[in-house]
Amino acid sequence: MNEINKVLTVSEITNQIKSVLENQFDEIDVVGEISNFKAHFSGHWYFTLKDANAQISCTMWKGLNNYVFFTPQDGMKVIVKGKITVYPPRGNYQIDVRSMKPAGVGELQLAFEKLKQKLSDEGLFDSIHKKPIPKYPSKIGIVTAIDSAAFQDMKSIASRRYPLAEFVIASCRVQGEGAADEIVESIKLLNSQKNIDLIIIGRGGGSLEDLWAFNEEIVARAIFESKIPIISGIGHEIDFTIADFVSDLRAPTPSAAIELSTPNKTDLFAFIGDFSYYLTDNISRIIDEFKSDINTAVTSYGFRTPLDMIKNNYQSLDNTIFRLNTLFDQFFTFEKNQYTNIESKLKSYDIQKILKRGFVIAKQEGKIIQRLKEFEKAKSLELKFYDGDIKIKND
Amino acid sequence: MTKKKEISFEGSLQRLQEISDILEKGEIGLEESIKIYEEGINLANYCYKTLETAELKVTDLKKQLEVKVKQK
């Protein structure tokens, strides 16, 4: 034992404490409730672990906290693994956390309930925010792991039901550390694409821990902010995640999500078949109606009128012709009478009568000589008497 | 053919419904009726064939984007 205590500088004593503590507690598991949780933008986590009587500061470095499958929340009871470190500038000690897990499944359940309540209070689940699901989606964005059984199921069901669709998959991990970030990234990526009609977020069944990514706040907010309607199909029928509450439609499984969002091929065939039948039926009916309209028109009184008119005109024409004939006959008879009269008058002037009275007609070459100047001495002369003709040759 | 592709399947079904309604009402003339009837039957055939021959297309978006980045 030293008679006189050696005087130590603050640094010296701090370094001795640091050495003792860090050697003594270099591998510890501590259970406690998280408070004052802060995720610094640098990626490091700072929080306090406490129980009823004590508290201890904790840090968890970026890189390590990537391996925590859930986002810690204040009030959550966790078990951390790590070591004690002393920070000389501040003279305090803390747990340098290497890994963290919930103290029990109940903790996750509690975190789930708390987040659900918080988002519900904010109105993220309200039905007014639910976007309608298109009936015939041509491009379906898929957020799931491309090599998963869930994706295979979705593909085979879509092929069977509605092969007209196109799957645009933004593959991501759907469980474990970092899964939530990848899911968010995939949702955003699909939103940046053109013509995506619908997004389906899918994952097969699993434990609460396996499905935890879908209970993370960042995933919930990404779903809420998506401009494209989202259907969630996560786990089994009985599993409800926060993503289910905030999505526009919740399907019990990934396969069911496809069934809810695509029309069935057989129904469509029937639908088209019915249309072809109805169209033909209707056009036949329309043609028949027009036919009967034509028949009605043709046999109608109005349509018969022209024929009647023709008949009437025929009759009137006949009448006219008959009357004309009669008139003509009358006219003809009249004219005939006239001629007869004239004829008899003419007869009274008959040459024979004149000759009978003693006149003679002189002709030369058959032509009657009426005046002296017509007479030609050289030619022979024919004289016509009442009782005969004589030719006088002039030589 | 290219013109037909521009009409979406959904649009075709809607038009089919429209045509069916118009014919049902029977308010248009014969010539027009026959015209849209023909359109309807063609659409129905088109829908049927499209659906029958369709195969699900899968696009891996992340892979596609990677390829694009590499090409640049």
Greatest interface and its participating residue counts: A-B, 37 and 32 residues
Please work out how many helical segments of chain A DSSP would assign: 10
In round numbers, the mean pLDDT of chain A is: 89
Mean of residue pLDDT values of chain B: 82
The ordered H/E elements of chain B are HHHEH
Q: Describe the biggest sheet of chain A?
A: 5 strands, mixed, barrel
The low-confidence parts of chain A are none
Strand order of the largest sheet of chain A: 1-2-3-5-4
Tag the structure with descriptive keywords.
A: 395 residues; alpha/beta; OB fold (Dihydrolipoamide Acetyltransferase, E2P); Rossmann fold; five-stranded mixed barrel; five-stranded parallel beta sheet; 22% strand; rod-shaped; B: elongated
Describe this structure in words.
The complex is a heterodimer of chains A (395) and B (72). Chain A is 43% helix and 22% strand. With 395 residues, chain A is of the alpha/beta class. Chain A folds into four domains: 8-103, Nucleic acid-binding proteins (OB fold (Dihydrolipoamide Acetyltransferase, E2P)); 110-261, 3-Layer(aba) Sandwich (Rossmann fold), CATH 3.40.50; 265-348; 352-392, no CATH class. Chain A has a five-stranded mixed barrel. The longest helix of chain A is centred in the last third of the chain and has 48 residues, at 301-348. Chain A starts with 9 loop residues before the first helix and ends with a strand. Chain B has one domain. In chain B, 79% of the residues lie in helices and 6% in strands. Chain B has helices at 2-6, 9-25, 30-53, 61-71; one strand at residues 57-60. The A-B interface holds A 135-136, 138, 141, 146, 155, 158-159, 163-171, 189-190, 193, 265, 268-269, 271-272, 275-276, 278-280, 282-283, 285-287, 289-290 and B 8-10, 13, 16-17, 19-20, 23-24, 26, 30, 33-34, 37, 40-41, 44, 47-48, 50-51, 54-62, 65. Strand 7 (166-169) of chain A pairs parallel with strand 1 (57-60) of chain B.
